Description:
The chain has 387 residues and is of the alpha/beta class. The protein has two domains: 3-255, Spore Coat Polysaccharide Biosynthesis Protein SpsA, Chain A (Alpha-Beta Complex), CATH 3.90.550; 263-386, Glycogen Phosphorylase B (Rossmann fold, 3-Layer(aba) Sandwich). 31% of the residues lie in helices and 20% in strands. The strands form three sheets. Strands 3-2-1-4-7-6-8 form a seven-stranded mixed beta sheet, with helices on both faces. It has a six-stranded parallel beta sheet with strand order 13-12-11-14-15-16, covered by helices on one side. Strands 5-10-9 form a three-stranded mixed beta sheet. Helix 8 links the parallel strand 9 and strand 10 (220-222). The longest helix is centred in the N-terminal third of the chain and has 14 residues, at 14-27.
Amino acid sequence: xxxxxxxxxxxxxxxxxxxxxxxxxxxxxxxxxxxxxxxxxxxxxxxxxxxxxxxxxxxxxxxxxxxxxxxxxxxxxxxxxxxxxxxxxxxxxxxxxxxxxxxxxxxxxxxxxxxxxxxxxxxxxxxxxxxxxxxxxxxxxxxxxxxxxxxxxxxxxxxxxxxxxxxxxxxxxxxxxxxxxxxxxxxxxxxxxxxxxxxxxxxxxxxxxxxxxxxxxxxxxxxxxxxxxxxxxxxxxxxxxxxxxxxxxxxxxxxxxxxxxxxxxxxxxxxxxxxxxxxxxxxxxxxxxxxxxxxxxxxxxxxxxxxxxxxxxxxxxxxxxxxxxxxxxxxxxxxxxxxxxxxxxxxxxxxxxxxxxxxxxxxxxxxxxxxxxxxxxxxxxxxxxxx
Length: 387
């Protein structure tokens, strides 16, 4: 299942959008990220896609006619591009469900639950606004795009905006959306739009702290209001998380992604380069990370695996280094697998489960499970990850 995320971006928000996209790529795979814009540098998209391809994602340059976005929100920090969300189902006619998020956000989790969620009869899903609890916050919106097209909701929103303008009411996107939908929206859990921006706007006794003070379960962090994490004197909560994503390069993003996808870590000791089944096992078990330990330097037959995302090589590792690795919580191992066909395996003193296949079973070694072939072993590993 491919997930679909959309942003509305102008020149002023390219930098924070870069960070938001990085956060998506660090925590998600199989995602199409649409950047709705009226003219941004193609090099920007090239660079983002260089990273996105590593995790089977795409960053798509989705142009919109600026003449469609002629309204004034009335807020300095909200540009006309904020109204681009009205047009998403029409701009993306092949998409059935779209997650729109503002540029001043971080996606700090897997967003798959939003794409498997039953929306029932609702056209849109949102989170209550933490500043004005009578409204929903439009910074994170889950669209049933088919319903929007069928009901011509974009047209209805424009009509609503024109009426509000005649009435002299505020016409920023959030006010228009709330006027149209009212309470008729799917109420998403607060964690999907964790609004930290109001930290700097209201006194504590008047703010969300009164109601949400003990909440710190966030999946999407939203630096709402004019208080942005990247500004010099805006010390909002989770400013440090924003800057940690800002500092991430391609290799760190890939590493975070693999770590999040990993549900099982298997250690493999080798005494030779006769591990022909490793490639097949890694391909069949994408949620398993394989740590390959060798007492000596390794040949090209082993080094060829270093480019696989779920294989980590440790050539010429000493006993001291091995102990240090397993004392580090980032390098846990759940079970050991024998794949070395050399029959010259080192003694392995561990209380962890030990698995192998009949082809690589060593005489005199006690195994917890012995499989007929590599296919059965892969199936068992996947069963563990899905448990």
